[in-house]
Every structure is written in C-alpha cells, then in structure tokens.
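Q: what sequence does this backbone want?
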C-alpha cells in the first residue's frame, strides 16, 4: 500500500485551517473509478465513493495523535486506524483521510490517501487501515 498527502495539507496545517490536535478527521473509501490527484483540496473533489453493506457515506471518524520529537526535530501527526466490520463491497481501491467540518463537502479539507494498489472486494469481511503518517520538519 502506498500513501500520499494532498498538496494542500501542508498549507492548510501551516495556516491553521487544519488543527491536528483539535479537529475531527474521517476516512472514506472509493472505487478505482476515482482518479487520485494530489492537487485536490476539498472532499467534494473526491468521486466514486463506495456504497454497500457495512459502509456509511462519508466514511468514519478516525483518531489522531500528535507527537513532538525534539531529538529528530519534527512533529508527527498520525491518523489512526479506520476499521469497518462486515463489509460487503466490490472494487475498493482507495482510502481518503479528510478534516470533517460537519457541513458541505466543499468545506472539508483533504489530508491524504492510501492506494491499495489493486481493487479489493469484501463479502462480510472486515477492513482495517492504519497507514497514514505526516511528518513536518522543523
């Protein structure tokens, strides 16, 4: 699995649009029909979200931890595990992390995405994803 940050994430974090310590973050799943573009910046640019048993549109909340490392001079923001139990879905390809504001999807800032490298199908199975770490060098 490969993971990437959207280009807007560093800017949003630096300007305060994203506060990793206090904001609410979600993870959603898309099909392979979504074409990832690091230039995307808002959730309304994410297309082809999956639909099926065990999955709610918009995804699920994920925990976030922020740690400061004064030895390596960086701050690490870790987006925690998203777990769906008993999924029945076909063609799951990407997981997208975003800041959820609770209103229009055009207001939700994107963080990053995970590429599963191939379509995955689920027939009552669970899915857990814990891969997404952003590091800011001082």
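A:
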């Amino acid at each position: 699995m490969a993971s990437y940050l959207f280009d807007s994430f560093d800017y949003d974090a630096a300007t305060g649009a994203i506060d990793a310590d206090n904001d609410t973050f979600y993870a959603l799943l898309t099909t392979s029909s979504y074409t990832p573009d690091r230039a995307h910046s808002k959730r309304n640019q994410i297309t082809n979200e999956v639909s099926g048993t065990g999955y709610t549109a918009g995804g699920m909340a994920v925990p976030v931890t922020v740690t400061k490392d004064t030895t390596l001079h960086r701050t690490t923001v870790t987006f925690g595990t998203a777990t769906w139990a008993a999924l029945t879905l076909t063609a799951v390809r990407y997981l997208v992390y975003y800041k959820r504001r609770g209103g229009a999807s055009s207001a939700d800032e994107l963080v990053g995405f995970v590429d599963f490298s191939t379509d995955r199908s689920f027939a009552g199975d669970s899915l857990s994803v814990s891969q997404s770490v952003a590091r800011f060098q001082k």
